């Protein structure tokens, strides 16, 4: 069962219950008012008849059995009274004394319980029935000299009240059914119209599921109600999913490229190592057929071992770089503390003296950094600076490599300048990508293209930034900015 049908049934059910309760209340109130009004009229008419009747009573004397003189009242002819009600008088023995012409051959009934209650001086109003005609009857005691001498019965037909109430009941029932039907139809239409945007949500979700097209959005021009906010939220979620999906696609593409490049970089030293090992195996296997001197075997073995050692070291460095990048991808958080920046730079300078280089290494005065601290990791900061300095020496054949320091506001800047081969302008946005090497450096110098990626990760982990100034054949300048401890 759909939501709109359930909502319609709920609305219709609640409306039906409210209409039924309202109908019952209205019926009871109307019935009570009609009968109370009729009872009040009956009492008023009874009082008027009783008054006129007492004024025309005659007294008759008689002798009691004990010899005392008593008297009785002869009830008058009631036909002289001008009234539209049915009148009847019964004496205290229950015998009919008189009745109005309107009753013809009928008598107003009175049961024994009612008769006894009236003889005790009580006035009673009851519903009675004569020949299938409903009567509302007043039983009023006739009292003379503090004695009940009879019962005055005043009755009126109430079939018209029952007819009116019955008519009202059927009209209300039919009107309610029509109203509930109209309400159900309108409710179903409004529910369908209100929930139409939900169907658009389902349609868009189905299209996305079938075609993975995240460009679809839910069109909505209605008010900013709950559904409007829901659709706005879903559209925002779709936009976010689209961005995440695109990022995942880019990450997956980069991962494939990363694996491919890493495999390529590892394959080269492995091939070299395997080739040298196979050469040694063949050399020793062919020793019986081709006599070789011990000196020749030692020289060939030494060269192979040197190649194997060199390639193994290259593989070790590559694996270390890959491990650093894997930590970066895994969200590794390096331990940091407040440390002085000057000793770090001095340590890197001492290590850089042992790098293979063909140019001068110029170092600026570092006294500017005295007592200056940064919040960082000693080892990773050294590794980052060493990468930039090593690259500067690698790509600089003549001229110099210079290291300067400066402070601007709350940052320390470490500037590393070389006079090497430089880069093209279009290479700059990509130099921090993994395994990327500018065209001018490919084939000229060995390398994996991972150093600057690691350096960029270390800089970002220290909330720093890096500037690049370069010109082809004129050299490159890197300026690393690290925030100072306040």
TrEMBL record:
PROSITE patterns: HAMP (PS50885), HIS_KIN (PS50109). SUPFAM superfamilies: ATPase domain of HSP90 chaperone/DNA topoisomerase II/histidine kinase, HAMP domain-like, Homodimeric domain of signal transducing histidine kinase. Keywords: ATP-binding, Cell membrane, Kinase, Membrane, Nucleotide-binding, Phosphoprotein, Transferase, Transmembrane, Transmembrane helix, Two-component regulatory system. Its EC number is 2.7.13.3. This is histidine kinase. It holds the Pfam family HAMP. It comes from Chengkuizengella axinellae. It catalyses: ATP + protein L-histidine = ADP + protein N-phospho-L-histidine. Residues 192-246 form the HAMP domain. It is found in: Cell membrane. Its main location: membrane. It is an enzyme of class 2 (transferase). GO terms for molecular function: kinase activity. The chain crosses the membrane at residues 7-30, 170-191. The keyword Endoplasmic reticulum does not apply. It comes from the Bacteria. It is a multi-pass membrane protein. Residues 261-486 form the Histidine kinase domain. SMART domains: HAMP (SM00304), HATPase_c (SM00387), HisKA (SM00388). InterPro entries: HAMP_dom, HATPase_C_sf, HATPase_dom, His_kinase_dom, HisK_dim/P_dom, HisK_dim/P_sf, HssS/ArlS-like, Sig_transdc_His_kin-like_C. The keyword S-adenosyl-L-methionine does not apply.
